[in-house]
Every structure is written in C-alpha cells, then in structure tokens.
Amino acid sequence: MESNRGIKTLVASFMLCAVFTTGCYYDKVAPEGPPEGSISYSEDIQPFFDASCIACHNGGGIPLNLEASVSYAELIFGDYIDEAIPANSLLYTKIEVGGSMEQYATDAERAVTLKWIEQGAKNN
Predict the structure, then answer these.
(1) In principle, which of 28, 31, 91, 94 could form an S-S bond with 107, CB 3.0–4.6 Å?
(2) How many structural domains does the chain have?
(3) Which of 73, 117, 67 lies closest to 95 in space, CA to CA?
(4) Is residue 111 part of a domain?
C-alpha cells in the first residue's frame, strides 16, 4: 500500500515538473518582416512613439521630443536620420537589438522604422 502511494507521488511530481518546465508552442510568435508598400510616418511611426516613447521623450528634459506636433522636425533636424546608410541612423541604432532603447520596440516596429528611413523618411 505504501509502495502505491510512493509511486503516485512520484508520478504526480513528474507531471508537475513536466508542466512547469515546458513552454507552450503557441506562445512563440515568429518575428514579422517589414510590411509591404509605403510606410506612413503618421500612421506607422508616430503611433509607435505615442505608445512606447513619449512617456519620457515629451520635451521634459530628455533629448528628442517625440510628441506628434514636433517629432518629425526633431528627428530630421536633430540628425537622428541617416538616409545614406539607414541602418546607421541614430533613431534606428537606439531601438535595434543591443541599442539603449531596445526594450521599447518590437521586431516589427524596428523593421517598420528601418523601412521608413530606407524609403526616404518622408513626413507622410
């Protein structure tokens, strides 16, 4: 009788261990590539800033005000965009993997930002 209880306890422990040490396959999402077509600053870039950046970058002392009324001018005239080598743009290097603002951007947001710069960083 004691042997049965020990086996049941061992099986239950094993099952709990299995549940807590395996990940759910469906939680993993493949990174998205850049979207097709033209990137719109007002529809694709500014909403990213609104959701992830302006809590700090709002003209309150931290460089680069990303509020909608001034963000484009700040990026262009503040030398955050390098149209010759888009991947070297300060905006992109800050949010890319390994950059100081990496945690605030998703892979999709990084891809959209880089594609927007590659397309000429238009204020559209």
Answers:
(1) 31
(2) 1
(3) 117
(4) yes
Structure-token match 């992830």, residue found: 52
pTM here?
Answer: 0.72
Kindly state whether residue 18 falls inside one of the protein's structural domains.
Answer: no
Distances in Å between the alpha carbon of 46 and those of 69, 73, 80?
10, 12, 15
**CA 4 to CA 45: how far, in whole Å?**
62
CB atoms near residue 22 (< 10 Å): 8
Structure tokens at 105: 């951007």
What are the tens digits of pLDDT across the range 52-89? 999 999 999 899 999 999 999 999 999 999 999 999 99
Tell me phi and psi for residue 14, to 5 degrees. -60, -45
Task: Determine, yes or no, domain membership for 19.
Answer: no
Residue 46 forms part of a structural domain: yes
Question: 96, 101, 103, 97: which is closest to 117 by C-alpha?
Answer: 96
- Decide: 33 and 107 in contact? Cβ < 8 Å: no
